[in-house]
Amino acid sequence: xxxxxxxxxxxxxxxxxxxxxxxxxxxxxxxxxxxxxxxxxxxxxxxxxxxxxxxxxxxxxxxxxxxxxxxxxxxxxxxxxxxxxxxxxxxxxxxxxxxxxxxxxxx
Amino acid sequence: xxxxxxxxxxxxxxxxxxxxxxxxxxxxxxxxxxxxxxxxxxxxxxxxxxxxxxxxxxxxxxxxxxxxxxxxxxxxxxxxxxxxxxxxxxxxxxxxxxxxxxxxxxx
DNA sequence: CAAACATATGATTAATTGTTCATATATTAT
DNA sequence: ATAATATATGAACAATTAATCATATGTTTG
Lengths: 107, 107
Fold this sequence. Notes:
Two copies of one chain form a homodimer. By secondary structure, chain A is of the alpha+beta class. Chain A has one domain (about 15-105): Arc Repressor Mutant, subunit A. Chain A has helices at about 15-30, 30-40, 50-55, 60-70, 90-105, and strands at about 45, 75-80, 85-90. The first copy, chain A, has a three-stranded antiparallel sheet. The radius of gyration of chain A is 18 Å and the shape is globular. Chains A and B meet through helix 1, helix 2 and helix 5 of A and helix 1, helix 2 and helix 5 of B. The structure holds a DNA duplex.
């Protein structure tokens, strides 16, 4: 029994939903504040205030953006006393950013 | 004489401008219409009308988005008679999309 | 050259989104 | 328990942006 959208005349695209999620993921990388935040954690974990001071952003703004990064599983975190330390969630995050960099460096 | 922001206590970030450009690049991937368009060209080149029909989008919309993809050097194109055939510009585009997919597939 | 077809583009509009401000929650120290 | 510090979150506002509509540009055919 044919599934909806199984059209033999053209190469099948991944489900719209997957492409939608993919766009949502890139959207997260597509804001300079969030990219700066991600980049600030390239070497080591940082707490919210560290990031805010380092990047000259308000604590609130950083918190809001970290929530988005958390939701997309781009960062993980651990509590240590009053502070919460954030770090990149996995190597994919670095890879994606590095690929982007490489593209920019092209002729 | 120390420049503003040259703080030795933390690893230096790349120039703001580079990170800004990086965010702009990901912003281009961060729209589901554009991702669908890019994905439609994964296998082979397509002309504007092909894309519009395939993805059920207006010709105008596709053209507008292709202009953005062109500007970011994500697609290239060639004219053949009345039609203009678009294709992915290089392997980085595929790589970036694939990396994103991999991230989505994670546990 | 005119008609037809393919693509590009400018202007407008609706929807999305990042920042700010105010305030809430959570942890530690006194 | 209260104050102090660190982080999170809700609401409102300003700015960005994708789709549409109308029209322009470019190419081929009769």
